[in-house]
């Protein structure tokens, strides 16, 4: 029954946009949507559409997620695309340029028992932590980590091309296919504009981690001379074409055969499709929840925040980025990180970039710290923010970027707070 419901839902959405290949798309995507559609069907029998709409609006207003802002800036990519970034500066008195409170903790940077030697290579100095987000997200997906670190260390958060507040890729608007190598060059442009000097810590989730690998492959000297540490969160160095997305073999093979064509067709009718997406918001919310989170007790406002992030990515952008992932293979770039501290973290139930892909990265970086988060999905930094922030803070302490006594434990909880 659930597969029929999913197929019917997708067929209805497709007919609304007048797409003549609705049957093929419904059959393929319906396999993925089956589990989500079953839950949506139950919800529709018990909760009216108007009530669901009011609930979404209430959730949008209840959480501050994505509201943190820093000093804006723009970098120019090699094709002229404007890349938007924000910087949270640390002031000499311990506050930040973004208006945060006093520094948590005290004591000189690098003190305490957790500091480790950086292989005798790096010159001590100010550190900038550069966060790169994943596919169909934006810089706001790092909300909890940004809240925890903004009064401790200089950070840069940027939107990948065609995502968030960055400009639509100019080369893509002219028909040039986007690739992970292009994203690596984009990251280099952001670093040149936002952090031209000093040590760097590179943090990437999913596509953002792939972006860091592409940077290393194209600019190995930058890695050798300036990168003090790296954190890979829910990412992959290749073989994404083998990911099953939690589906049976027959289902995933059907999806792989038709999905690229489906996305191209949808992308060519972006305005109509966006109306269709809004009309089937409940179904897509179920899909987003299934492929973003694993835990049962995620704050509903966080779930809704993830929906907003993903829904804000236009369908033509979704379509033009998708082929890059099946072609992605940066395993040969990983040795560039062997001489720096590396954190590799993933959710154990990630259906998009399974934890086995993180383990494969760790196999090539035997000195790296590998953390598999129990009951964690793809958006692990939103689902288990305290775990992610704690491990990231530990990495920063190890390189002397934040004081060992710094307190980041009070930030990044998805639990409902008393009186909230």
Automatic annotation (TrEMBL):
One MF term in the entry's GO annotations: hydrolase activity
Lineage, broadest ranks: Bacteria, Bacillati, Actinomycetota, Actinomycetes, Kitasatosporales
Residues covered by region (Disordered): 88-119
Family matches, as Pfam families: Abhydrolase_1
AB hydrolase-1 domain sequence ranges: 128-385
InterPro entries: AB_hydrolase, AB_hydrolase_1, AB_hydrolase_fold, Epox_hydrolase-like
Regions of compositional bias (Gly residues) in chain numbering: 94-110
Protein name: Alpha/beta fold hydrolase
Key words of the record: Hydrolase, Membrane, Oxidoreductase, Peroxidase, Transmembrane, Transmembrane helix
Membrane spanning stretches: 22-42
